[in-house]
Amino acid sequence: MSSSQPAMADLHGVRRRTFVREADGSTDRVTDATWVQGPSLFGDLRQPPGLDELVGRTCPSDLDRPQLLALCEQKAFAGGFEQDGEVFSWIRRIDLHPAGPLPDAGTLRWEDGVLVEEGLHEAYLEHWELVERSPDGPAAVLLDDPAEGCAGLLVRVGSWFAYARDRSAPLPTLLVPLVEQVRGCGSRAEAAALLDCEVSIGRVHADRWEIVRSTLPHRVGACLQPEPGPGGDGLRIRDADRQGRARPRDWRLTRIEGPVRLLTAGDARG
Questions:
Q1: What is the CATH number of the domain that holds 155?
Q2: Contact 59/45 with Cβ under 8 angstroms?
Q3: How far apart are CA 263 and CA 270, in angstroms?
Q4: pLDDT above 50 for 128
């Protein structure tokens, strides 16, 4: 079996997880996990089987408590990817869940074309298979919404994209798991607000940027359609409010990686 360590430049692309062995020894081949990696910025969404059938395309504000608790079973995060010698780290700028006590770090190696990830601080192992790379290279931006005080991120690799938008207000506590915070809320509206963190994966077909999976079920099927913001600065995307009503969101660009033209609707390619 051939094995070698990749370099950062080798890792941009879209990958799907085919296997994981968790720290407790359990294994999983059915969670739908997709990792979209740009030059350094990335988005990652992991959803358990059966979630679509349980929650449909319903806005969290209209879901009942058991459905909201089911949304907590997702894992979703986005941020920066770094390498320090043999160690790779995923710096989570946006995370559906409270930050864990340990950094997200591990080693990576190729084994017969499969990218194998092993945890540094936890004894997990994951297999990732390449879905797509882009001959044009990836592009990504960090985003800031000064009007609502939240951060965002957009990454494009070929016909795929990952979009993330953080909560406007942080979680009340970082010491309690999200599922326990949602379970303990006094009202459904309060519980739904805790889940108002978007990590979406989508595809670009011609000039249509369509979300195909999302932490927010009502966003599936929606078009992101990024375009230059008012005055030609920033980025405007088609977002939705907490009740699922369509609305534009104007982002300020705080960091740019790769050709920003790839992140606008006019340059979308099928």
A1: 2.40.128.280
A2: no
A3: 14
A4: yes
Look up the domain containing 87 and give its range.
3-267
Q: How many Cα atoms occupy the beta-carbon half-sphere of 266 within 13 Å?
A: 7
Count other C-beta atoms under 10 Å from residue 255's C-beta.
13
CA angle 98, 99, 102 (to 5 degrees): 145
Q: Is the pLDDT of residue 268 over 70?
A: no
Q: Give the predicted TM-score (pTM) of the model.
A: 0.95
Residue 261, SS3 per DSSP = helix
- Tell me how far CA of residue 168 lies from CA of 83, 149, 198, in angstroms: 30, 6, 11
Contact 144, 151 (CB under 8 A): yes
**Taking 50 as the threshold, does the pLDDT of residue 187 lie above it?**
yes
- Residue 208's contacts (CB-CB under 8 Å, 6 or more residues apart) are 223, 225, 268
Look up tokens 């195909």; give the residue.
Answer: 212
Total of domains in the chain: 1
The predicted structure's pLDDT at residue 2? 57
Assigned token pair, 254: 């705080």
For every residue of 61-86, DSSP letters joined together read GGS-HHHHHHHTT-EEEEEEEEEETT
Instruction: Give the span between the Cα atoms of 195 and 181, in whole angstroms.
Output: 10
